[in-house]
Amino acid sequence: MIKSFHRPTVATVDLDNLIYNLQQVKSHLPKETDVWAVVKANAYGHGAVPVAKKLSHHVVGFCLSNLDEALELRDAGIDIPLLVLGVVPAEDIAIAQSQNIQLTLASQEWLETVLAMHKDLSGLQFHLKVDSGMGRIGFKDSKSINQAIQILQAHHAEFSGIFTHFATADEADDHQFQEQLLIFQEILKHLPHQPRFVHASNSAAAIWHSETVFSAVRLGDVLYGLNPSGRSLSLPYSVKPVLSLTTELVHVKELPDQQPIGYGATYKTKGSEWIATLPIGYADGLTRDMQGFYVVVDQKPCEIVGRISMDQTTVRLPRAYPLGTPVVLIGEMGNQVISVQDWADYRSTINYEVVCLLSDRIPRVYHSSG
């Protein structure tokens, strides 16, 4: 999808706030803790390459979802460690080898498939994934983990890390969290040796569960100024929003009483109303269920009326405004604030999903003091 530069819809990314948020979290971690920044999914919609370039001197490495995301950073000149958290196709191992990309080893079966194609794993670094209760990828017991480590070493690969992922670290009820932690700790006890990187803490665990901070942490959501728990748990320190989303009025007209608006005629005017059109729609990451939510125009909340279309959104104005009047969808205008979490609450989802759904069609503009 090409970026739509020739329209006024823009996502602005404040890279200084990104660094501020990282420093806030790091100030509450042991000084020796290694930090991996999670920049998968295009850095949660913020732009992987600019974000990684800004963070590259402040973290030990970057976590990606798949090999192509890692290659994007290598192609952009990012030369610090990269870790792919997902399962890489066995036939692509040589690419990771040549680009010095660290991989996740999640099963004996996958390792056997790799070795059937590649006998020499020299130079490859692996992090073993433990399924401590998430139910996704990962080893379940110490025996299979230790066998995998032996095989790696026999084929000249490096056992660089071991990690797990908690299902409920961002919830007040920590029953399952504690069960998972015990499982992971027990597996660590039976390792033949501790690798450099032992990481169980994502953003939520690093913030609210200091007992999970081993030698490294993986920070994602909180770097972008978002609360990993939504509103369930309060952050113990401040973070600043990194992304804002703005556009302009491109069409304004007065409509009479009972005028249907949008697909399905789900809204009809209640008396004479000023209706404006915005050049942004569900192809950009808004969703149709945002009818009834609001944007900010002239420091006033203005309701979204009618269904959101693929490319356009209609809002009700308190009066006529000229074309080109600024509109805030995420961010601040005067004393009015719309946050990513506000979007998430209205859509009954999580803030992660909101920013990840902002499509590449929206240009990202980056601000940084240096």
Can you give a write-up of this model?
This protein has 370 residues and is an alpha/beta fold. The strands form 4 sheets. An 8-stranded parallel sheet has the order 4-3-2-9-8-7-6-5. Helix 4 links the parallel strand 3 and strand 4. The radius of gyration is 24 Å and the shape is elongated. The protein starts with 9 loop residues before the first strand and ends with a strand.
List strands and helices in order, with pairings.
Blueprint: E1 10-14, H1 15-26, E2 34-38, H2 40-44, H3 48-55, E3 61-64, H4 67-75, E4 82-84, H5 93-99, E5 103-105, H6 108-117, E6 125-130, H7 142-154, E7 158-164, H8 175-189, E8 197-201, H9 203-208, E9 216-219, E10 243-248, E11 251-255, E12 260-261, E13 267-268, E14 273-278, E15 294-297, E16 300-303, E17 313-317, E18 326-333, E19 336-338, H10 340-347, H11 351-356, E20 364-367
Parallel strand pairs: 1-20, 2-3, 2-9, 3-4, 5-6, 6-7, 7-8, 8-9
Antiparallel strand pairs: 1-10, 10-18, 11-14, 12-13, 14-17, 15-16, 15-18, 18-19
Structural features:
370 residues, alpha/beta, elongated, 7-stranded mixed beta sheet, 20 strands, single chain
Task: Give a brief outline of the structure.
The protein is α/β, with parallel strands linked by helices and 370 residues long.
